[in-house]
Design brief:
It contains nine helices and 17 strands. By secondary structure, the protein is α+β, with helices and mostly antiparallel strands. The protein folds into three domains: 50 residues, no CATH class; 140 residues, Rossmann fold, CATH 3.40.50; 135 residues, no CATH class.
Length: 398
């Protein structure tokens, strides 16, 4: 992890850059910068020259981002927890390797301000993209920042918290790919695409059963968000390196309960350090029903699909699962027919799924594909680290 020592003092904004030759001293060379955090202070920051790998995860509220983050951080080892000794309402999660930042923290308007101006949190006008870009870039470059906090309990903007550069930074929320400057900082990007039908079914299950909301109020809530979602959030999926698309099942005619799902992992071809997974034979078009002696399937069964498609004018590979698992320990049979999983050992996908069997989506394609994408991100990170180490070793010989 990039290590930082920070000293603050009242001062005007200025930047001190190290001599150009300092950058040729190798992978672990340390340097000092003076950066302005926007709080009227000059801060001397000492960081390692190792850059942070940045991952972007976009989705609407209530679409499974938190569960995905738990799966992802588990792949790298260690539980993700709020910053110790910090604001108890912080949205940040920190593990040994990863730091997860919620982009709601870059709201420029608090809850009252949005109401007064008649905008939602999805509207770009309610968010500070300049600060988002500056701080994500600083962290990527190995510099600590004082990041604002949006308090979801009070709806207010709380005092900032210190974020040190981790090995991997995950920025998750509504807008990680909206601003092109932020988008260009991402080493990999994912979009969770939940269809309107599934969103509606999930919200009914949660809000009617658990919160006592009426069907009419649920419909009104969804419709109120839809224009801004369609305008500002949904278009980001065209930029994603991987999309997890959740749709109603095709195994049950006219199903509207959302308990059985058809989930598609859409993987862009030609992404650096990312080889799409495939089923049986790479580049072929395959339908597969795995139910039988090696995989227990109750009604309505399980069906897989794999093949090439075009998605927003991009060539993609798609693996699809429709249905749900009865026994996760039998998932190893499915795993054995998937390739390019970036696992460390045979059965690692199954092990991860069993480890988190209590997580939402563990019995269907959402959990399966979230786990696989987590393993692919680990592989991407390890490739980047290896490339940097090789470049550093080569530079040291010059």
């Amino acid at each position: 992890m990039a290590s930082c020592t920070i000293h603050t003092a009242p001062y005007s904004c200025s930047i001190s850059r190290p001599a150009a030759k300092a950058f040729s001293l190798g992978f672990h060379q340390r340097h000092q910068q003076l950066i302005f955090f926007g709080s009227g202070r000059r801060s001397a920051v000492v960081c390692s020259a190792e850059k942070t790998v940045v991952i972007g995860l976009a989705a609407d509220s209530g679409c499974g981002k938190s569960t995905f983050m738990r799966r992802l951080t588990s792949v790298f080892g260690g539980a993700a927890e709020p910053p110790r000794g910090g604001n108890p309402d912080s949205n940040t999660l920190i593990s040994d390797t990863t730091t997860v930042i919620c982009l709601d923290d870059y709201h420029s308007l608090d809850r009252t301000g949005r109401k007064e101006k008649g905008v939602t949190a999805l509207d770009p006008r309610a968010n500070d993209f300049d600060l988002m870009y500056e701080q994500v870039k600083a962290i990527k470059d190995g510099v600590a920042v004082e990041k604002p906090i949006y308090n979801h309990v009070t709806g207010l903007l709380d005092p900032p918290e210190l974020i040190k550069p981790p090995k991997i930074l995950v920025i998750e929320g509504l807008h990680p790919m909206y601003d092109s400057r932020v988008r260009d900082l991402l080493d990999f990007s994912i979009y969770l695409d939940i269809s309107n039908e599934v969103k509606f079914a999930w919200k009914i299950q949660r809000d009617m059963a658990e919160r006592g909301h009426s069907l009419e109020s649920i419909k009104a809530s969804i419709e109120a968000r839809k224009p801004d979602f369609d305008a500002y959030i949904d278009p980001q999926k065209q930029y994603a390196d991987a999309v997890i698309e959740v749709l109603p099942t095709q195994l049950i005619p006219d199903d509207d309960e959302g308990k059985v799902l058809r989930v598609r992992l859409i993987m862009k071809e030609g992404v650096k350090r990312f080889a799409p997974i495939y089923l049986f034979d790479e580049g072929s078009t395959i339908s597969w029903i795995p139910c039988g002696r090696k995989l227990t399937c109750s009604y309505p069964g399980i069906k897989f699909f794999y093949g090439p498609e075009t998605y927003f004018s991009n060539e993609v590979s798609v693996v699809e699962m429709d249905g749900k698992f009865d026994r996760l320990d039998e998932l190893i049979y499915v795993e054995s027919h998937l390739s390019n999983l970036s696992t460390k050992f045979y059965g690692e996908v199954t092990q991860q799924m069993l480890k988190h069997s209590d997580f939402p989506g563990s019995n269907n394609g959402t959990g399966l594909f979230q786990t696989i994408v987590g393993l692919k991100i680990r592989d991407l990170y390890e490739q980047i680290v290896a490339e940097r180490a090789a470049a550093s070793a080569a530079a040291a010989k010059v």
